[in-house]
Amino acid sequence: MYPITLLVTFLHEIWHALWAILTWWSVDSIEINTNWSWYAITWWGWKPIVLMWGYIWSAILWNILLYIGFKKHDYAQFIIYFLALLMIYTALILFSSIFTTILLIVVATSFVLLAFVFKYDYYILQFLWIASILYIIEDFNVWPSSDLSKFSEIFVIVPQFAWMYIWLFVVIFITWKNLKNILKDDKKILWVK
Prior knowledge:
Number of domains: 1
Structural class: mainly alpha
């Protein structure tokens, strides 16, 4: 499961970086520590948005990928290639360490091979969705260094546990709406087509 965890966490950090740029921050680097934890180094901007949208946009992205995996098979291979290019771009342009660069290139190459050689592109997206939602729920924590903990330090009026359940509710709601949309046109849908 490590490659899946790597990809899910990588995209979580990419969302932090994207929202940093959209709120006039700059992104210095994205790095994997040797203990497998990740972080994105950003400068300036609106910190609450950057902290929150790493989590929320991860759920949105994974649900979009699930929809493509079930309903838009023609786009699935393109999405896998795009994710691989995003990893390679991060490895080379947002360079932070040799370890990060090598790891991202190996995982990107693996995904391209699975999508191109074996044609498992939409299965990959379906599997990634399951793994990512489980990972998002498993990562739903209040560690002192977590995004949620840092976010609740800014908005102290609402307790940390309340933010925790607000974020979880948003993820569950997005996932429920997506699954409802996927299943509405099909009386019977198979996980493997």
